[in-house]
Design a protein that fits this description.
14 helices; binds flavin-adenine dinucleotide; 435 residues; alpha+beta; 5-stranded antiparallel beta sheet
């Protein structure tokens, strides 16, 4: 088994750093089992990393870090049931390309594809579309290694309660080794980006949401403009102009934005003007492409992020308050707020548990202060029964989280039964589950 010692690990945003004693790269389930069993016997901690794209301190450890980078790819596809058997370490980009080459796709995805499938599912990573759940709802079965090294198997028929706990489980119930994923026939997407007045956008939320397979929008602080994105299934085929549109979109969303972000960082009072300029530059374009390549846009501009889930019906009221709060406090912020919809589900720790949901995400350019901005917005989200995205910054601890998740105690019961020594906990997770 591949292994490195003394290497500094950091997450994507650079907010979480640690030096694990060793990072191990198992190549099969037995190797995972051996590492976990030995660590557990010796009372040593184990954390699991996907692609390190979470903003919260889920990963840091000074002990053993398990990466499944050597356990990637599709094992096989059960065509009769449209189920792909995949290794848990598979990165979403590889998964999308591999599925496409076999004539399949995922029904929905988020806005980047660097995450691992297990990491994305484990934090409730989502895209947008009120008729689609988060990525974890595509998971139809799980094989994992528990803290004592034993193998757990669960799905809707076999250990169904454990399955509902494991789908979104932050790596505290076990190391997911293999996943069965619900897939759909490969499909092409018609993508539209346009600008819309803020008030018009808010007044049409229900229609835009119901009339499009996927709908999301961006609100630019200090501007009356929003950018809306509509993504629908089409029989049209990708063409060359789509390639150039995509290229321009990447240049605008990365190159030009990086430059404007640096201006805001050096002279924060310019961020209000930068936000207004960004709103005016928001791409107006159409594009057709294979679905797996259309959801994601590379993000080269680094930032910190907080994202909250609230009941879908509160999107409009919450956004009006958020906008008033930004105007009142005159925060130096030029990143737009990203607003999405997700169908309610029944996974115990999913922020969308039991309710169709709206997600509102706030970003701050790396190097600019974000605590006050996030803290004021968090108060608004909590008032609307908010639940934080597990991979994004928030300040909630066990007691507040327990009040927000009906199945919190049931989840914790499984956690204690499966991992009585807390092998899979780090300091941050102790605050989430034990304080
Ligand atoms: C630029 C950027 C864009 C993003 N866009 C979106 C978006 O559109 N929508 C959205 O919802 N989120 C988004 N996120 C958040 C991101 O999707 C989540 O934080 C996701 O969990 C990251 O996946 P990862 O593979 O990097 O997991 P990591 O951050 O490495 O790990 C996340 C959690 O999963 C656990 N885990 C990983 N692998 C396993 C395994 N095999 N078994 C058990 N547990 C495991 C880890 O222990 C950890 O608790 C974005 C983040 C960034 C930086």
């Amino acid at each position: 088994m591949r292994q490195v010692s003394g290497k500094v690990w950091s997450n994507w945003s650079g907010s979480s750093v640690s030096t694990p004693e060793r990072i191990v790269y198992p190549a099969n389930i037995d190797e995972i089992s051996n590492v976990v069993r030995q660590s557990n016997k010796q009372d040593r901690k184990v954390r699991i990393v996907g692609s390190g794209h979470s903003f919260t301190a889920l990963i840091p450890t000074d002990s053993t870090l398990i990466s499944l980078d050597d356990m990637q790819g599709i094992q096989h596809i059960d065509k009769d049931n449209s189920i792909a058997h995949v290794w848990a370490g598979t990165k979403l980009k590889l998964l999308g390309e591999s599925l496409h080459s076999l004539g399949y796709a995922q029904e929905n995805l988020g806005d980047i594809n660097f995450q691992s499938i297990a990491g994305a599912a484990s934090t409730g990573t989502h895209g947008t579309g009120i008729n689609f759940g988060s990525i974890a709802t595509q998971v139809a079965g799980i094989n994992a290694v528990a803290a004592d090294g034993s193998i757990i198997e669960c799905d809707a028929n076999h250990n169904p309660e454990l399955f509902k706990a494991m789908q979104v489980s932050l790596g505290v119930l076990g190391v997911i080794a293999q996943l069965r994923l619900r897939v759909v026939p490969a499909w092409n997407m018609h993508f539209v980006s346009k600008r819309m007045n803020f008030a018009d956008c808010l007044n049409q939320l229900d229609t835009l949401c119901q009339n499009n397979r996927h709908f999301e929008f961006y609100i630019f602080p200090y501007s009356d403009h929003t950018q809306i994105k509509l993504m629908n299934q089409t029989e049209e085929l990708p063409d060359k102009s789509s390639f150039w549109n995509h290229f321009n979109k990447i240049v605008l969303e990365n190159g030009a934005f990086k430059l404007m972000s640096e201006v805001s960082r050096i002279i924060p009072k310019f961020s209000r003007s930068v936000s207004r300029v960004s709103a005016r530059l928001a791409p107006v374009m159409k594009q057709v492409g294979h679905s797996h390549s259309m959801f994601a846009t590379p993000r080269h501009v680094r930032f910190h992020e907080m994202e909250y889930n609230i009941p879908a019906q509160h999107m409009q009221a919450a956004l009006e308050e958020v906008r008033a709060c930004i105007n009142k406090n005159q925060f130096s912020v030029h990143f737009p707020l990203e607003c999405r919809y997700v169908k309610g589900d029944d996974m115990w720790l999913s922020p969308a548990y039991g309710r169709d949901s709206a997600y509102i995400a706030a970003h701050m350019y790396k190097g600019m202060p974000y605590h006050e901005y996030f803290s004021e917005l968090e108060k608004i989200f909590l008032k609307y029964d908010g639940r934080p995205h597990w991979g994004k910054l928030h300040t909630l601890k066990a007691k507040q989280l327990a009040e927000r998740y009906p199945k919190w105690e049931d989840f914790n019961r499984f956690r204690k039964e499966l991992d009585p020594k807390g092998t899979f906990l780090n300091k941050y997770l102790e605050g989430i589950f034990q304080s």
